[in-house]
Amino acid sequence: MTPAPRGPRGAGSDTRAEILAAAANVFIRDGYSASMRAVARAAHVDPALVRHWFGSKVELFVSSLRPAERDDPRLAALMATPVEGLGAAITDQFLRLWDDPVDGVRLRTVLRTAIAFDEVATAMRGVMFDDVLMQVLLAHDYEDEDARLRASLIASQMLGLAVARHVLGFATLEESSRERLVALYGPTLQRYLTEDLGPLA
């Protein structure tokens, strides 16, 4: 009996997950210059199927390398943390992500690419700001405009730390323990969370 020829797989959720896994490997290896066709080849699917799931390369890039979805338990833990301990908790979770052997590689790839490509920077800002920090602050009953200012300040601290450690290679920060960095940065984030920041404009 002649086996049926193997063709492109269908558009099921398993295929989407396989495309994401292949894309992460391709982008980590080749950077943002990798094409959607290259991802399709790595995933053994038709390029049209990649575009079916992801309308643009930037969407595919960020989706494949993002460390967490909205239902991630780490996000839920931050949303449940009392406000008085939230600055330290955000700092700790952020550092755990960046130091993770899988998520850290993905985040460093996104960060370096975001510095060079505006569309990736915009997408990264959406993930970190809208999908993470704003969700955490709104869960603690901050008003929208107030939450946006506080989340922006927190993001500036955390992304600045990431650039210093993982792009510029500040040795002192690279070699500092997570506990030490939480002790240093946590109070600053806590001030952004709880102090009166004055008029918004």
From TrEMBL:
<dbReference type="GO" id="GO:0003677">
    <property type="term" value="F:DNA binding"/>
</dbReference>
<keyword id="KW-0238">DNA-binding</keyword>
<dbReference type="Pfam" id="PF17920">
    <property type="entry name" value="TetR_C_16"/>
</dbReference>
<feature type="domain" description="HTH tetR-type">
    <location>
        <begin position="13"/>
        <end position="72"/>
    </location>
</feature>
<dbReference type="InterPro" id="IPR001647">
    <property type="entry name" value="HTH_TetR"/>
</dbReference>
<dbReference type="Pfam" id="PF00440">
    <property type="entry name" value="TetR_N"/>
</dbReference>
<dbReference type="InterPro" id="IPR009057">
    <property type="entry name" value="Homeodomain-like_sf"/>
</dbReference>
<dbReference type="InterPro" id="IPR036271">
    <property type="entry name" value="Tet_transcr_reg_TetR-rel_C_sf"/>
</dbReference>
<dbReference type="InterPro" id="IPR041678">
    <property type="entry name" value="TetR_C_16"/>
</dbReference>
<feature type="DNA-binding region" description="H-T-H motif">
    <location>
        <begin position="35"/>
        <end position="54"/>
    </location>
</feature>
<protein>
    <submittedName>
        <fullName>TetR family transcriptional regulator</fullName>
    </submittedName>
</protein>
